[in-house]
Design goal:
heterodimer; A: about 100 residues; alpha+beta; two-stranded antiparallel sheet; 2 helices; about 15% helix; about 15% strand; B: about 140 residues; five-stranded mixed sheet; three-stranded antiparallel sheet; 8 strands; globular
Chain lengths: ~100, ~140
């Protein structure tokens, strides 16, 4: 253990830890049709004369759901309006949420 | 000699025509399958409702949320955008994918945040469209 032992050794920088990085994304584009949600139209779907309900699944977005029910992703604000009480951020919906889908 | 030159010239013309025809077919196929291209990649601290960057920068503070807005042009039933963020030492910071069905001009934003702050240094972002590298951006994080 000489006093020169540390000489010539490059001081190693501790490796940065990125394990807690949070990420997200959103888009103006519609979701592909292949990924469109399959509506639950059974008795549990709560279909009524004026609107029906839809349970959000992983990967859903309002535009994707609008595309499925109305055939037009740009009609997502109608679903947003009908669910203002539970959707604060239209880019953020969660699996299991039951959304009211107004008639087209 | 003169005749052989004529034959060679004719062969060249035929070969050139065949090459042009092949190029034409290839281009059409590519357009049919891809149909979408990345037109702009911008970094910043926030995005608007149209998913465009509202506070553009390439120098961030440790507590910033880092946004990238990817503009695409073209239509396709399905296109996959991927944002790959890495640190100066090559470490993967994050990788996110979004599959879209673009119609004409669209914008897609990706964002990353680190609750305990970004380490200062140089970062790289690579954006892929359908698994093909579309654009690479560099940015810095500097201590506040």
């Amino acid at each position: 253990m000489g006093i020169f032992d540390g000489f010539g050794k490059k001081e190693e920088k501790p490796k940065a830890d990125f394990s807690n990085v949070q990420s997200g994304s959103s888009t103006t584009a519609a979701a592909p049709a292949a990924e469109a949600p399959v509506p639950d139209l059974g008795p549990a779907a709560g279909t009524s004369g004026s609107e029906q309900t839809y349970t959000v699944v992983a990967g859903d977005s309002l535009s994707k759901i609008a595309k499925h029910f109305y055939g037009d992703a740009n009609k997502w604000p109608r679903i947003h309006e009908a669910n203002r009480d539970q959707i604060k951020n239209p880019d953020l919906i969660h699996p299991g949420q039951k959304l009211r889908i107004p008639t087209a | 000699m003169h005749r052989s030159t004529k034959i060679q010239l004719s062969l060249c013309v035929v070969l050139l025509a065949a090459t042009a025809a092949c190029r034409g077919n290839g281009a059409n196929t590519t357009a049919d399958t891809a149909g979408v291209r990345v037109t702009e990649v911008t970094l910043g601290r926030s995005v608007g409702g149209d998913k465009a960057i509202t506070d553009r920068t390439d120098t961030f503070k440790p507590n910033d949320t880092i946004y990238v807005s990817v503009a695409t042009d073209g239509a396709a039933p399905s296109a996959t955008l991927r944002a790959k963020w890495s640190f100066e030492d090559g470490q993967l910071v994050n990788e996110s994918t979004r599959t879209i069905a673009p119609v004409n001009k669209e914008r897609t934003e990706f964002h990353i945040a680190k609750p305990d702050g970004w380490p200062a240094g140089k970062y790289k972002l690579e954006v892929f469209l359908n698994d093909q590298s579309a654009e690479t951006k560099s940015f810095d994080v500097r201590g506040s």
